[in-house]
Amino acid sequence: MAERPTRSGGDRGERRPAAAPIRSMAELNQVSAQQTIAATAPADLPEPKKDAQGRAYATGARKNAVARVWIKLGKGKFTVNGRDGNVYFARPVLRMLIRQPFLVANRSEQFDVFATVTGGGLSGQAGAVRHGISKALTFFEPALRPNLKKVGFLTRDSRVVERKKYGRAKARRSFQFSKR
Description:
Blueprint (H helix, E strand, L loop, with lengths): L24 H10 L21 E7 L2 E9 L4 E3 L2 E2 H4 L3 H13 L6 E8 L3 H19 L4 H6 L30
Parallel strand pairs: 3-5
Antiparallel strand pairs: 1-2, 2-5, 3-4
């Protein structure tokens, strides 16, 4: 009888724990108050990526939503798909979600944001815009990257809806069982 080869530790499907997500505004304010931008030499940081109009561009994604985000210095104007951001994202939770990168970076009301979002629902779109804003901030000001990375805003949230399987009512739910 032949021996089976043993697996190495990385093949067991074990996951590393991700950075703990921020659950409330109090936690976010505490994290942003504790963090300070690390004083690094300009040679260590990459060059800012801006276009001719002084804008930084990034794409963000969440669930099935994709956001194209442009930020530039301004007075805090927020536009999503040609509408005011507060009108497009009417729920306060969604508005809080898209303001989080600016609060962590201590840059609230300093940037104008123009975003176009497609796909998904409002919650996924808000997450995509937050991801895009975070990436655009790191392109505009590379010194902000450690703070945004530490709270997990630069990582795409890869959770998506599980597909429905045949022989099941939904993805995992079985049909009702009747003994008689």
